[in-house]
Specification:
The protein has 357 residues and is an alpha/beta fold. The protein is 42% helix and 17% strand. The chain has 12 helices and 12 strands. The strands form 3 sheets. It has a 7-stranded parallel beta sheet with strand order 3-2-1-4-5-6-10, with helices on both faces. It has a 3-stranded mixed beta sheet with strand order 7-9-11. Helix 2 packs parallel to helix 4, helix 4 packs parallel to helix 5 and helix 8 packs across helix 10.
């Protein structure tokens, strides 16, 4: 079968990546979608079992730091577009393991950039019709005061954690490859994502899981830190739009226009879970446990997405209350998924599904 485009999505077995892969596979049957994932602890192919048999979907287990493996994927599938999502992304882990974050987020991105550059330069058309799209985070901008406005695409970088420093570095390499070699690139910086299939080390699935299990709900400091929340399917729509219509060499911020103090968000989660589990109102508030604040914990993030709205017509489709209801319902309706994650059983999915292929 001849495909109109051959798109490589890195980290496609992860949280955001799985939603992007699913959207692209279903929306573009004339595209070949190649999902490259190392399947570290946060990669779960069960997230994609509903598209696993699609004729335009291919999975490759590989490390983005392995240049030869990545080059083989480019050659085998004649890749003409990259949507780069593979990354270590948990701030707490970055504090404990900064070198792992530098390895994957910086050197992995650099490896992908170099392989794309060399492969596309070898073709008669070179960079024509090609795109390297790098997904990043709002954390590269640093922190805002409570009344300190919003992050825009012109906000200077000021990362404070090893995670955000590694993502800032990868952003700079992407821009350097565009400016130095003419590689066609786009970068987007997004706010906190939430929704189905998120690994339960992150706040919302962790708290849903802990409430159903009657475990403590650890809150850093007094819960005063503010984050902007973006429903993952809205983010996937934005990625699709930017990939097809974004301006090469540019940057777009993607946010939910949805700021919440952590403690207020947590109380919404508690109220929603208790209601859906038919617990008495306020039943789980006693699980809140205030713990020592995280080192370098940024006070507030908030994104101005007006450029994306004005230039490409994107805006979030869900209000937060609707999004959190859908999200909590999904985790409670998929408690087996949560149990497999917390027990580690999900890690054998690749061997069960792919060992005989």
């Amino acid at each position: 079968m001849n495909f109109e485009r051959n798109i490589l999505i890195t980290g496609g077995a992860g949280f955001i990546g799985s939603h992007v892969v699913r959207l692209m596979v279903r929306k573009y049957p004339h595209y070949r979608i190649v999902n490259l994932d190392k399947l570290t602890y946060a990669g779960n192919l069960a997230n994609l079992k509903d598209v696993d048999g699609a004729p335009n979907y291919h999975f490759v287990r590989a490390d983005i730091c392995d240049a030869e493996s990545v080059a083989e994927v480019f050659r085998t599938y004649d890749i003409d577009g990259v949507i780069h999502l593979a990354a270590e992304s948990h701030v707490d882990r970055s504090i404990e393991e900064p070198f792992a974050f530098a390895q994957t987020n910086v050197l992995g991105t650099l490896t992908l950039l170099q392989v794309a550059k060399l492969y596309w330069e070898s073709l008669p058309e070179r960079f024509e019709g090609k795109l390297f799209y790098h997904i990043s985070t709002d954390e590269v901008y640093g922190a805002l005061e409570m009344d300190g406005g919003l992050f825009t695409e012109q906000t200077p970088y000021g990362p404070h954690s090893p995670y955000s420093a590694s993502k800032a570095s990868s952003d700079h390499f992407v821009r350097a490859y565009h400016d130095t070699y003419g590689l066609p690139t786009i970068i987007t910086n997004c706010s906190n994502n939430y929704g189905p299939n998120q690994f339960p080390e992150k706040l919302i699935p962790l708290f849903v899981n802990n409430i159903r299990m009657g475990k403590p709900l650890p809150v850093y400091g007094r819960g005063e830190n503010v984050r902007d929340w973006l429903y993952v399917e809205d983010h996937a729509r934005a990625i699709d739009l930017v990939f097809h219509k974004g301006r090469v060499g540019d940057t777009y911020n993607i946010g939910g226009f949805n700021e919440w103090k952590n403690i207020d968000l947590i109380k919404v989660i508690i109220k929603t879970v208790d209601r859906l589990l038919e617990n008495p109102e306020g039943h789980s508030e006693g699980l809140i446990t205030y713990v020592t604040d995280r080192a370098g914990h940024d006070l507030r993030y908030a994104i101005d997405s007006s450029k994306l709205k004005e230039e490409l017509g994107w805006e979030p489709s869900l209000q937060f209350e609707e999004g959190i209801e859908k999200t909590v319902r999904w985790y409670l309706d998929n408690q087996e998924w949560l149990d497999e994650i917390t027990s580690g059983a999900y890690a054998g999915y690749y061997e069960r599904m792919y060992s005989n292929r």
